[in-house]
Amino acid sequence: MCFCGHAQPFEQCCQLFISGQQYPDTAEQLMRSRYSAYRMKEANYIVQTYAQEKRNEHSEEEILLFANQVEFINLEIVDTGKDHRFQYVEFKASYLEGQQLSMLHERSRFIKEDGHWMYLDGELYPCEEKKVSRNDPCPCLSGKKFKKCHG
Ligand SMILES: [Zn+2]
Ligand SMILES: [Zn+2]
Q: Which ranges carry the YchJ-like middle NTF2-like domain (predicted)?
C-alpha cells in the first residue's frame, strides 16, 4: 500500500510523480503525492509543486523541519471539486508529534500551470489536538496498541 492510502505500492503510485516519471492527471493525485513526499521527506518535490507565485514563500529547510518534527500517519480525502479555474481537494492528514495527535484538515486549491497541476493555497479548518495513551488503539488504524506501533 502506498503512503497516500492507495492499494498499489509506493513505487507504482506516488513515487512515479515524485521521481518525475509521470505528472499527476488530477489535483487529487498531486495532493496525495505531496502527502507521500512529506512522508519520504522529499522536500524538493513539495517546493516544486507549489504554484509559481507561492514557490518562493517556501524553502526546503522549512519543509524538512516540519517533516522531521511530525510523523504523518493517515490521509483521508474528504471531498474533491472544481470550478472553471481550480480544482479543490479537502483532506484530513493525521500526524503525531510525540504522543500528541493532530490533524491537518484543509481545503486546498490547485491550479494548472504549463499543463500540470500545482498547489496554490488552502483553507485550514480548526482541529483539536489529542493525547494518545500507550494502551489506546494506534491512530494509524493498524489495529495495534499505540505502544506497540507508533508509540
Ligand atoms: Zn500514492
Ligand atoms: Zn501506528
A: 26-122
